[in-house]
Design brief:
single chain, 429 residues, alpha+beta, 3-stranded antiparallel β-sheet, 16% strand
């Protein structure tokens, strides 16, 4: 570009005229309106930390729009359309897929059920079942009807939450699989929240600055005159403490002070400990998972008993509502994927890499991407072939000179008979 073209087309964020107040940007807030705000007492409890831990682990799974094989059993390829863009790049103009799924899970835990709404579509979903989904939002179901639901949904055009009534056929409604544990009025989570709120109230009362003392005055206080005298004496002590720089007051030698703010023994902490342990067990979690020190076996049990039911509910709901019957007959589906190497120690990756490549499960470049290395340009790195057996140049490992099925003999020589042998016999060749 010439100097004139650079000056003509250049742009700077600080001198851009739209930074002024000459344009109406719409409603603005100082708090992110897309952030999930817990309610029903969850926001005042450590239970929120447990919910957030589960939501983060669920959001780390990859959800994709895929095409299956002819038997609808195995993943074949990714369908690169607008729905897959919402699931892998940006669910809407404000949220990436991880934030969106975390929003879904936290809202579901808080409300018991949540609605995933296709906000922007290529055609009107009420008039046609064939449409492309361009953005997704999480909404709260505030009213249920036989064929419709009223949803409180954030409108990214106005910046406010609005109530919309939509047919159930176009909205993916996800129910919490742990509703009996989290959302029932007398569930373990609600009882734990209640106990924690009582403990917070006691702590607040203890730290309120009150002395909680009883001053025993000489004589018997029964008449109104004696009561008035005692009240005056109490007020005099309060005034002394309030007006003193160091909080010092004096009493008569015949008066006696009794301190009341001693710790009262109760079983509240024991009940909280018991309910916390029960909540962990019913959710399939352990304290080590919250700390991040759980071993591989514990994490596997956590994913199978806690994460899989949640992500399955989300994926199955989207597959039901966002894919038409025609798309399902064409083997379209929505699946979630988990990286099996994410929790694998480095010491085991080398052994697993050798087994995967030797048994022709993954190529060398695929395993390099798992480690985090860039792929190599060697075409042999993309082959599903046992590198320990060197094929002779010009030969296909699966065929002999005459085109018949064969195998690899010792030294890389193709042998027609080996291809006809059983696997148990091939090990002895």
């Amino acid at each position: 570009m010439t100097l004139g073209d650079r000056l003509k087309h250049s742009w700077n964020a600080f001198i851009n005229p739209t930074n002024g107040f000459r344009y109406d940007y719409g409603r603005s807030t100082y708090i992110n309106p897309n952030r999930v705000r817990m309610s029903m007492g969850n926001e005042r409890s450590i239970v929120t930390a447990v919910y957030n831990r589960i939501a983060i682990d669920v959001s780390m799974l990859d959800i994709k729009h895929v095409r299956m094989d002819d038997n609808n059993e195995r993943f074949k390829e990714v369908v690169d359309d607008s729905l897959n863009q919402c699931l892998t790049i940006a669910a809407n103009k404000d949220q990436i897929p991880q934030q969106f799924i975390q929003d879904v899970v936290l809202s579901m835990f808080d409300e018991g059920s949540v609605a995933i709404v296709p906000v922007d579509t290529s055609t009107n979903p009420k008039l046609s079942e064939s449409y492309d989904i361009e953005s997704l939002r999480v909404g709260r179901v505030i009213q249920w009807m036989p064929d419709y639901v009223k949803i409180r949904l954030y409108n990214d055009k106005t910046g406010e939450k609005e109530d919309v009534t939509l047919p159930k056929s176009m909205v993916a409604i996800v129910d919490n699989p742990f509703y009996a544990v989290m959302n029932e009025p007398n569930s373990v989570a609600k009882r734990l929240i209640h106990k924690l709120n009582i403990l917070d109230a006691i702590d607040e009362q203890s730290g309120s600055g009150k002395l909680d003392v009883i001053v025993q005055l000489p004589g018997i206080i029964k008449t109104e005159a004696r009561k008035k005298q005692a009240e005056d004496r109490r007020k005099n002590i309060e005034d002394q403490l309030a007006g003193s720089k160091y909080g010092i007051a004096y009493i008569d030698g015949t008066e006696k002070v009794t301190q009341l703010n001693r710790s009262v023994e109760n079983n509240l902490m024991n009940q909280i400990t018991f309910l916390t342990s029960m909540l962990y067990s019913q959710l399939g979690m352990t304290e080590e998972i919250m700390k991040g020190t759980a071993d591989e076996k514990t994490m596997l049990n956590y994913y199978n008993n806690t994460i899989v039911p949640i992500i399955s509910s989300i994926v199955n709901s989207m597959r039901w509502k966002f894919l038409t019957k025609t798309a399902r007959t064409r083997h379209h589906s929505i699946m979630y994927f988990r990286d099996p190497f994410k929790n694998t120690p480095i010491s085991q990756i080398a052994e697993m890499t050798d087994k995967f490549t030797r048994n022709e499960v993954a190529s060398s470049n695929e395993m390099r991407s798992v480690i985090g290395w860039k792929p190599v340009d060697d075409p042999r790195a993309n082959e599903l072939r046992n590198k320990n057996l060197n094929a002779e140049a010009g030969y296909d490992p699966m065929y002999t000179d005459n085109g018949e099925e064969g195998g690899i003999g010792a030294g890389g020589v193709m042998n027609e008979n080996i291809g006809k042998m059983k696997l148990s016999e091939l090990a002895n060749v």
